[in-house]
Specification:
There is one protein chain. By secondary structure, the protein is mostly beta strands. The protein has 3 helices and 21 strands. The strands form 6 sheets. It has an 8-stranded antiparallel beta sheet with strand order 2-1-5-6-7-4-3-21, with no helix packed on it. Strands 9-12-11 form a 3-stranded mixed beta sheet, with helices on one face. Strand 3 and strand 4 form a beta hairpin.
């Protein structure tokens, strides 16, 4: 499964009304698009108040950027010694799912995520796109708005939530990106790189129980915890609490998955790179959010292949 091809963010923002383009915002500047796997998605840009289009930049107006629809949620007008400006922040239209009526708690038995997504989106005007995550879980979602419930489904089944605001679909994919083979190296397209190793939340022994004290000990050799000492022999305890009635096998599987994230240092890499894919002959170097890319800087000992989880 792949997202439909969309124009790159070099295209200026376009004002949308009733689903149709009505005005190209050609004179904006400092336009920035922020996207994050299973996280934020918003755009900011600035225009002159003297621009005839500035009056169109009102709260709740919709703009299209890089093929996706965003709703203006914040406008700031400013005079700082020169021409007055207006700066807008527009959130991806899927944020509106947090404004829909709350859903009641619901139990699921040996369920796959497709049916759960469909139930969470019922009556919202959104529908299910592709689902490539095929896990089965017995669990209960907690009351919340549709966006909160979608996040719960993603946490339980894993994978990446992908929102297509133009088609108004929500997909749950094993991974939202591709193995691109793209390299970022010093002297070519790598400008800055930073590595942070953090053991603030290190856990090597994870206990788990439901709200009423039930554990998964009966299906785990009598132990109410799992351990992972692949990085260190240090015992660092953590604890997860599940809703009463959660299936012990589901609880055990989710505890193991959670421990896998916390049993070693949290390592993050931030890089400023040049996108060369729009130069003739460099099209193969295109990359997107969710893709696996390689960063190589021998001088600082960085040679890693990782998924792009945040892109500006």
């Amino acid at each position: 499964w792949t997202m439909p091809a969309v124009p790159y963010a070099f295209e200026p923002p376009v004002l949308i009304a009733d689903g149709e383009p009505v005005e190209v915002l050609a004179e904006v500047w400092d336009a920035r698009l922020f996207t994050e796997v299973n996280g934020e998605q918003y755009v900011t840009f600035t225009a002159s108040v003297a621009d005839r289009r500035a009056s169109l930049l009102t709260n709740e107006a919709v703009v299209r950027v890089a093929g996706q629809h965003y709703t203006i949620r914040q406008t700031t007008t400013l005079r700082d010694g020169g021409t007055p400006t207006i700066t807008v922040k527009a959130e991806a239209d899927w944020y509106d799912l947090a404004r829909k009526p709350r859903l009641a708690a619901r139990d699921w038995a040996d369920s796959q995520p497709g049916a759960e997504l469909d139930a969470a989106l019922a009556g919202t005007g959104w529908s299910v796109g592709a689902v490539t995550t095929a896990t089965r879980r017995t669990w209960s979602w907690q009351p919340g708005n549709p966006l909160e419930v979608l996040r719960q489904i993603q946490q339980v089944h894993g994978g990446d939530l992908v929102f297509d605001t133009a088609a108004r679909t929500v997909s749950l994919l094993v991974t939202s990106g591709h193995k691109t083979g793209v390299f970022f190296t010093v002297g070519k397209n790598l400008q800055t790189v930073k590595r942070v190793l953090d053991t603030t939340q290190l856990v090597t022994r994870m206990h788990a129980a439901t709200e009423d004290g039930t554990t998964f000990a009966d299906v785990n050799g009598g132990l109410d915890y799992v351990e992972n000492h692949t990085w260190t022999d240090v015992i660092a305890d953590g604890h997860l609490t599940f809703k009463a009635g959660t299936n012990p096998y589901t609880m055990l599987a989710m505890t193991k998955a959670s421990l896998g994230k916390y049993c070693k240092p949290r390592t993050t890499y931030e890089a400023s790179v040049a996108d060369l894919s729009y130069l003739a002959g460099h099209e193969i170097e295109a990359f997107a959010l969710g893709d696996e890319v390689t960063i190589l800087d021998e001088a600082v000992g960085i040679d890693i292949t990782h998924k792009v989880v945040r892109l500006e």
